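dumping these here so i dont lose them again. two proteins, back to back, each one seq then structure tokens. dont judge the mess
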Amino acid sequence: MARLAQTHGLTDVQQEILATVRDFVDKEIIPVATELEHRDEYPQQIVDGLKELGVFGLMIPEEYGGLGESLLTYALCVEEIARGWMSVSGIINTHFIVAYMLKQHGTREQKEYFLPRMAAGETRGAFSMSEPGLGSDVSAITSKAVKDGDEYVLNGQKMWLTNGGTSTLVAVLVRSDEGHPEGTAPHKSMTTFLVEKEPGFGEVRPGLTIPGKIDKMGYKGVDTTELVMDGLRIPADRVLGGVTGRGFYQMMDGVEVGRVNVAARGCGVAQRAFELGVQYAQQRHTFGKPIAQHQAIQFKLAEMATKVEAAHAMMVNAARKKDSGERNDLEAGMAKYLASEYCKEVVEDAFRIHGGYGFSKEYEIERLYREAPMLLIGEGTAEIQKMIIGRRLLEEYRFQG
């Protein structure tokens, strides 16, 4: 029998890339992931290995030193990496979103300066939209940039910054009222700034502080932080695209492909949970036979496998739609919503199959059980996805009465 979640129509190059990444995951990530996660230790050796494989430059054009691959190739690689350890896929995702935003919206000078360094993994990207009091309401951003000669002065506090400590480049979304009259819609008066910094915690450049890691239930290893700007001075040539007022659209474009990425992570975690569940069900005996021979467990495995297949299919469809140049917010929203919800359910079913042992930290499913909930809120909650899906459906099926 073939593995679940196979993708048809891949080129030889795509298949070779995926086989290489899958081999790396099986040999270098899965054997150490649980131990590193329990210690909340940054997986430096794994990250270095992925750099050597070229994963950090997977979608960066060849002219800038990358591999020039598609979103589909990248998403399938993320699926494999998340199958090994979701935190590692998070380290790559934020880097990828910033590189994508630069590729799509950066000036020629910005692309030439940043993208070769990002392709090599020398410059590591992170992006920052959220703030302590706004949740999913991006229009309520209060962090602000004020023009001062040839520079902008940034002030404010950002929240939930993945790779906040280890990154050296952060794309930060703030309000910038300069050039936008009072009463301008909030999403038309936001700007994305490219902020370079030193890795680490504390004051990482004058006016910019990364206070420290946020202690989380799961999604450990990767550093999640706040970001505090207090008189942070940024040159005008570090406005993404060179023009203010376009930041909201630039960020939403990045988040749209990020949702495909989160869907891919959900698929990867769900696949691993299924693998663990179906393996344990054949090893564990009750009432004189493996529990896999009990109809109740077979029903559970059937449901889990069907959800893995369905989520993978929707994720692939969303990635291919984006690669074709078409609008894919509907497909990306559906894929992210379904994959994250199904991931939670598949992980819980695998946890139930393990019985009491699933509650033990000696078993990998315990880690997955704590990691899956992050996907329900990352890159937009289920409720936000439903709003996006609902609005797009009403556009497509407008009643002509």
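---- next one ----
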Amino acid sequence: MPVDRHLPSDEARDLLALVRDIAHREVAPTAAAEEDAGRFPRELFRLLAESGLLGLPYPAEHGGGDQPYEVYLQVLEELAAARLTVGLGVSVHTLSCHALAAYGTKQQRAEHLPGMLGGGLLGAYCLSEPSSGSDAASLRTRAVRDEGGTGWLISGTKAWTTHGGIADFYTVMARTGGEGPRGITAFLVPGDAAGLSAAPPERKMGLKGSPTAQVHFDRVAVGDDRRIGEEGQGFAIALSSLDAGRLGIAACAIGLAQAALDEAVTYAAERRQFGRPVAGFQGIRFMLADMATQVAAGRALYLAAARLKDAGQPFAAEAAMAKLHCTDTAMRVTTDAVQVLGGYGYTADFPVERYMREAKVLQIVEGTNQIQRMVIARHLVGPETR
């Protein structure tokens, strides 16, 4: 049964109906085979763009959907339930557009956002590096002024880049000043820029259809018109983007957990042991009840954070809480789903083993859950003392 959603408008209800139809017809039927083959569904992302689903939380004047985060995140949840590669891909693309949409000049937004939001382009976000993951402020990729002083040359390597090697544009954080967060600036780099290349995709335990790769910058030239925000503002822009992006990860996690719960409920109702459905045994019933409660709690938490964002109120702590709780929930629920299915759950004949492998990465991306605890604690009791 579809999730019973409380949506703010008829437009939002029509949008969710469209998303469910696309997820049912275009996403879910090929998910298992394409993940097993490691295929990224680029044509599907073109369909999502044509359907207006790649720019939902951004202004309509630039090709966006003018939807509140409360609605956009529930779209992500539906897509992730059908295939996490798709839900996560939309979330990462939306994250990649955030810097320009929120900090770009009027001219930059008019020039670039229509293609990014509704023109079929696919984005990637470049912050992490081989030697700076959680400690993002220590990044080493550097941008220096070119000889004419009108542009920049970017050199360095970014790591763990979703859509690395296939993206049409990259939002890149590079060092233009001294050490620390105040020396970082944001740039919008075309995917076909000379000197930009990608390593072979990482070999991952899950999400095999979503390419994750190192991206190399060898004196990649960009004009000053592709600098986003002020020099030295890049780290603040990155943190702002991540606050919003963590809500996307939370929604994707609940979508994945919901898919695992649905599979477990269906199996428990149909599978018979000792003369009755296994759903009739109290041990299984209690497991399913706990799983459903965790999913509902996670959904309520990410939606509460989204409503704060939509109201223009601070939401960074709540975003961290949502990312922490929802991704931990996805790991617990998918693991329990495998247990409900027993030996069958451990086989590739059922999707729950894939869900469990995919859930693990959600506890790591866009700030590990240890980082989320640090963020939450900082809001509660201030900075750490040394």
